[in-house]
Every structure is written in structure tokens, then in C-alpha cells.
Predict the structure.
Amino acid sequence: MSAFNAIGEERDIERDEFTPGIEPQPTWCPGCGDFGVLKALKQALPEVGRTPEEVLTVTGIGCSGKLNSYLETYGFHTIHGRSLPVARAAKLANPGVEVIAAGGDGDGYGIGGNHFVHTARENHDMTYIVFNNEIFGLTKGQTSPTSPKGHKSKTQPSGSAKTPIRPLSQSLTSGASYIARTAAVNPNQAKEIIMEAIEHDGFAHIDFLTQCPTWNKDAKQYVPYIDIQENDEYDFDIHDRREASEMMYKAEDALYEGEVLTGRFYVDDERPSYQEEKRAIGEMPEEPLAERYFDDDYEWERSADLIDRHK
Amino acid sequence: MTDNELIWRVAGGSGDGIDSTSQNFAKALMRAGLHVFTHRHYPSRIRGGHTYVEIRAAEHEVKSRGDGYNFLLALGDSFARNPKENAYYGNEETKPLSENLDELREGGIIVYDSGLLDAEDIPNFEERAEENNWHVFDLDLRGLAKEHGREVMRNTAGVGATAALLDMDLEHIEDLMEDAMGGDILEANLTILQESYETVKDEYDFEHDLRVPTGDHDEEQVLLSGSNSIAYGALDEGCRFIAGYPMTPWTDVFTIMSQNLPKFGGISEQVEDEIAAAALAVGASHAGVKSMSGSSGGGFALMSEPLGLAEMTETPVVLVEAMRAGPSTGMPTKPEQGDLEHVLYSSQGDSNRVVFAPGTVGEAYDQTRMAFKMAYDYQIPSIVIFDQKLSGENTNLPASFFDREPNADPGSVLTEEEIAEAAHDESGKFHRFLHETENGVSPRSLPGQKGGRYLATGNEHNQSGHISEDPENRVYQMDRRMQKLDSIREELNEEYETQQTYYGPEDAEYGLITWGSQQGAVEEAVDRLNDAGHSVRSIGVSDMMPFPEQEMTEFLESVEEALVVEMNATAQFRGLTQKELGLYGDKMTSLLKYNGNPFEPGEVVKGFEAQIDDSTENLATGTRIEPAAGD
Ligand SMILES: Cc1ncc(C[n+]2csc(CCOP(=O)(O)OP(=O)(O)O)c2C)c(N)n1
Ligand code: SF4
Ligand SMILES: [Mg+2]
């Protein structure tokens, strides 16, 4: 018998189960793209049959980090940049839990960049949503790793001298096995991409364009957007690393020229997830570790079993 | 100094297999019925650089390295560099024979490999040998090894010569070789061992008195290090997840855990950095698995944010901090006790954690278990702080010491049935962080449990975890979190035997106070001082936080004066004691050492004498007296 009966529970799930019954209401600014992520998640989760208590939403710090304050699931609002290491360990500890990590572009591509590279490389079975508003929102509008070159802010008064990071390309070279970009202004696509990401067995990275009307006055609304899967001009194979890479490069450049290319950029269904790899070499148990602590019959191993070599 | 003890120093180059040679020799001595204690000295280099291991062996318990040594086996350094006298690093080629030669006791034995070393290169070697009545044996160990096997087997030749000179039976040494190797390599080593044994027996007259001590154990013994026993304590307390990043000397614990966790159905993760390592341990624990991480000073610095997150979200976790000499990269392979304040206070806000500093290999096991117990019962991070010395020293314990019941209790976690009965808000969110509790602990739920959803956050939060800056809630939550430390102190005082180690007569006039790994040297100093007519008692303190106020007060009240012995430059533990007790500043003098070597018992004796004689004239080099406040 499981100690975690919310996991795998089969029942009808109402959409509003993911909306907190009482306060807090979101405190994001009117028109903020973060609402779009919240809404898409609330739609996607019941559609993939997940209940609030089998989901753990792990966030970083930023306006984006507040996501799990407004989404009714188990939540862990961690520290700036560190959502991924917390999230991936929770998944290893109890693989039955649906783990979704989320945070801002500063959080994930800047201060937490090292964790992003390594979590993608290891291909942990989880979803990672980066709220990319090309700005530090919560700290009032400083330049972020995705801000365009020349972007002026209070801390870069003469405009940024830095070329922005290429989040999709970086994700690909690091090893993510599902990579997509969507935008808050495109709710249907966003919902579908989130559903695919959750169902994907491996590290699914979504670069989610979320406009920040308060600080990113260049008024990036990410419209009009183009869905690269729907548009004949962008015919490429999302399972082909090289073609995906070219498409990503194009999309990353295009964004700074006002063209918003969204959709799936790379999908690898063959690559085993980290959990599978680790089990294959005998370094991860088949049964979720978290269950073991509730199993009264489990015979706990003892250091006395190891002591012979010291005699 | 004990009458009949062997302190065998094997010296050579880093990378020459000194470690495994000494490990096996120590085990052979243990199997022969002796108590053993090892002290390892090595440079932060893979190849080359002077390294040595001392094995102290006696019939009775040995708790520390000794004063100096009485047998030197000087092997060559295959990777020595800068063979010029005026080079910064000196002539490394001769170091196995020349370094600390003055610490060789009168009447001691020197065996050196004349195949690689030339005593003529060492200033006044012959005069010094004569003056000190050293018995010198120059043996072509390299040649012997080459003849019957390979050059690298010269360590074996050295061990054979040692056994011959000490009248020691080869049986246990041979058994251990047979366990460790096979085939041609074994054959060659056995031949070399016997050849060298016979050669020494046949060709030399023995004028020396030193022989291997004899002893007998009542029960079977095991030889293991502080790092081993920390890992074993963690495993017996149900720890099944570790995340880490290599850093000397913490790597030992990490390695032992990584090798054994898969056998126990657990998980070990080597990750991108120490921020991640601590964050992973927090994540796994949040999801319900007993978890740990750790590092040495530099890596621990990176852990300070996740550590604070664990305090704020009340996520249990155990972190191990293996100190080495700082600041910064410092001296990576040398022990020091300079990270006490780092471990007590790093991370923003009022610190809220448990810190234990075990003093011996045995205590390392018990206190690691206690650290887990407190972490999981009280939902608080626990830190086990130790150092390069305790990490690497090997000593014998009865095998039965490890015959313990495991305890995998995850602590204050609710079952789904219990959650159903517990408090929730109107929307069904579980009250994870209650204002009112008995001892400060508000039981937790785990992700995936029905009815238990809540938000864990590093922001201040209300009862269901929502971010809150309400002043009244803030005070409730802060006070409750801080109350846990008082509850832990109370439980430690009332439910368990003390974790402090007292030694010497209760009515003693003087006190020696130490913490962590210097305990053994201090206790030996207590014996010697009492034998010399002084009246001394010691306390080895392990509870750093919550501080053992009552015990420390009683101890300090019971003595007229105290000497606080620690391996750092700023008397950190004395400072902590003064801060916690608000008194006794004028009663505590400090004896400090921070040159990269741990205290020898004789150095503590001299420090004590310096204090009572009010003269630092005879203080051992490398040690320093820091006067009491007002002095
Ligand atoms: C270690 C640390 N450094 C700095 C901060 C301050 N800080 C909070 S959020 C943030 C940046 C937020 O930008 P982003 O991650 O893009 O999130 P957004 O607010 O745009 O969603 C910073 C610098 C912090 N909380 N912690
Ligand atoms: S500051 Fe920008 S990112 Fe933050 S809530 Fe307001 S609009 Fe959204
Ligand atoms: Mg941002």
C-alpha cells in the first residue's frame, strides 16, 4: 500500500481545483505575461490527468517565482536560481510525483545557469518553464541575460554591451530532450506545449515569453507570433539535432528583430531519462525511496554488514 | 610518553603507496593484539612531495598521535622536484629521511632505502645519529624489490625490514597481502617481504632495545577512520540520499557513502557545485528521504543559501563540514579548527541549526546519528563539523561497536490518516506551520500525500505556507522556530548521556577544555600532568549548538583556571563559550596552534606548564598562548 495516495489517483479533475480557494490572488501587474503561464498550467494539468496533490511546483525567486503561490499544488518556493537542484532531487526521491520547476530568465539563465546546463545534461524527467520577459522584473527592471544588446536600464545606463544568451541553443547543447518556446499571448499553444512537456519522459524545457509591461517598456507583447509548426516557411525535422539547432538559432535572432517564432524546436523520445539511466547501472532503486520510510516490514540495511573489511 | 610503544613513521613521496602500506601495517599490528592510532601528513599534490604516516601502537588504548616517533622507515620519493638546496621547497629528494628528523626519539631506529637516498646529503647525519644513539640501517630496498619483482614493491621490502628489526611475526602481514592481491604480484611481494626479513636478520647485529609491543584484545577489533564512522552513522540512521562535490577532506565521507549507498538501495549524486549539492539534499528531504550533503570550508561557504532555506522551510537535512586550514584554499590537506564560526553563523538571519563536533572515531558515529535524529525530529538542519585529522586517522574499535539497531524513522512526518485529522485552512491547504505547538515542531506532510498540500517558501510565511509579512505571524513563526533549539537542548540534557567527554579526577584544580578532534591529545596530556603531580581534568566539548550551558558552567565552576586548546588563531571556541555564558573570560587562557599540524600531547603539557609558570619560554614551536581576558 502506498503512503502517497494522491499519486496516480484516477478521478475527474475540475479545472478550478488548481485555483486557490482563498487568498492569495495573484499580485502580478495588469497585463503581465505571468498570468498566461498560470492559466496554461491550470488548463494543462487536468487534461493530462494530474491532481493538485501529485504535483510539486518548485520555483525560484522573481515575479515568476510566485507561480506556486497562485497554483494549488504542493509547492516549494526556493531561492534565487536554485529551483532545479531542489526539484530534481525531489523527483529522484519520489519519482511518482509530477515535478514542475519554474522561474525567471535571470533566475534560470543567469544566477542558476550552471544548474540549467547540468539538469538538462542529465535529462531529469521533469518540466522546466522559464518565464522569459527579458528583464529582471521583481527587482525593478535591470538588464537580464536575455535582454537585447543595447538595452538600457538603471544598471546599464548606456545600454547593454552584451549579446543576449541563446536559451534554446544552450538547452540543446546541454542535453534537454524536449525544447519549445511559447508565449503568453498564445494560450492554446502554451497549454498544448505544457501538456507535451509533462508527458515527455526526460528534461522538457519551455522558454515561455512573458511580457513585462511594467519594466520592459519597449513593450514586447510578443505579437504577432508565428507557430513554426503551422507555418510552411519553417519546414524542419524536430527530431534532427542539426536542423533543430539551425531553427533555434534563427528564432533567437529573429526575436530581437521583432519576429516571434514559437513552437516545438526539438524532441528526442529515444533518450532515456536520468532516472532510467541510473536504474540501469544499479544506482537507483526501482521502488520510490520515499515509500520505504513508511514500510513497516522493510529490513533496513546496517553498517554492521560492511564491517568485515575493517577487521 | 608510554613505556612500551611503537611509533612507526613511514615516509616517502606522495603517490608512492605510503597510505596503503601503512594501512596494512596498522591492521597487522591490530590483529596482533595491539591498539593502534594513525596520523597522516601529506601535501596537496598527486605526485611527489613529502608524505608520511605515523602508526602508534601499544598494549593499551591510544587516543592520539604521540610525541615524535621511535622508528623511521624512509623510502625514496619517486616524484621529488627542485633538488636544489636553495629552492623554495628545499631538496625534496632527501625529505623522507631529513624532515622532522629531530623528532626521532633517542635510541630510535632508522631504516632508509640506500637505493634512493644517501645519508651524506643530510647535514651532520652521522653526528646526529651518534649523539642521539639512533640505530641506522641502510638497506637497498629498491634493489631488493627490483630483483624479485618491481621497483614499486620497495615498500614491502621496508615492511619486511621493519618486522625483522622489531621481532615481529610476518603472519598477519602475509595474511593481509593475500587478502589484497593475487597472482604474480602477490608472489613477488611475499618473496620480497621474506627476503628482506631474512637479510636483516642474517646480516645485522641488533643493538637496539625497541621491539614490537605485545598485547591481546578481548574481542575482535576493526580499524577505521572518522570519515568511515560518519558514513556508517548516517547509513544506520536511515540516510539513503547524498549529494556532493569533491573537496578534500570531505571527499572521504562522500566516497564511502557513494560506494555503499547503491548496495543499500540508496542514491548518491555528484553534482555541479556545492550550492546544488545542498539544494539537492534539501529537495530529497522535502520529498521524504533522509538526506545529507557536506563539504569542506570553501564548499560549505557555497551552501550557505540552501542552508538558510532549510532553516526557513524547516526541512531536515544533515551537512558535514570537514575542516582544513583556511582562509580560502588555505592548506587543503592540513587540519585546522578555523571553521567553527563559519558553520555556526553562515547564512543570513538568526541562525537556527544544530552543530555537533565529535572528538573521536567512535563519537563521530554516535554524533552523526544524533545529528540525523535531531534534524528529522525537529525539522532543522544539523551540521557535523570535524577536520582533516579526524577524517583520516584510523584507530581500532571493537567490531561489536557497530552491532547496532538501525533507525530509519523519518521524524515528524504525518501519515495520510493523520493529515486528515490535522488542521487545514478553508481552501483545504494543510497547516504545515502551526503557530501553537508543544516543543516548536509542527509536523509536515510530503508531496504526493493526500490532503497535505502546502507551500514551502524561503519567504516568511503563515500557517499554510503562504508568504506573509504580518508582524504578529512573523513573531509567532520566528519564536516557534527558535524554540526548537531550546527543546533540543532539553532533550539532550534529559534523555541522553552527555555528548561531552570528561576525563580526569572530578575534583581537579585545573581544567583543560577542547572541542572536536584534539580531545585525544588533551586527554593524554591530562594523564601526564596528573602523573607529574598536577591536578587536572579535561572536557572535550561536542555540542556547539545548542550550547551545553549547564555542563560548561559546572565545569568552569569546578576548576580554578582553564586552558582552552584549539587549532585556530582566534580562539573561536573560547569566544563562543564567553558569548554563551557571559562569564569566565578571565578564567580561560587559550593554547592555539595553526601551523597545519595537530597538537601532540607533549605540546599541550608544555602549554599548560607555560600557563602556570607564567612563562612562554618552553612553549612548543608552532603553539601560542592567548591570555585570558583582563590578563
Ligand atoms: C542570491 C540573490 N541575489 C539577488 C536576489 C535579488 N533578486 C530577486 S529576483 C531577481 C531577478 C529576477 O529576475 P528574473 O529571474 O528574470 O525573474 P522575474 O522577476 O523577471 O520573473 C533578483 C536579482 C536574490 N533574491 N537572491
Ligand atoms: S514587474 Fe513585470 S514581470 Fe513583474 S509582475 Fe509586473 S509586469 Fe509582471
Ligand atoms: Mg525576468
In short: Strands of chain A lie at 55-59, 74-77, 98-104, 126-132, 178-183, 203-209, 225-227, 260-267. The pocket of magnesium ion (ligand 3) is lined by residues A 62, 104-106, 133, 135-137, 144 (CB under 6 Å). Chain A touches chain B through 65 residues (CB under 8 Å). The mean pLDDT of chain A is 96.
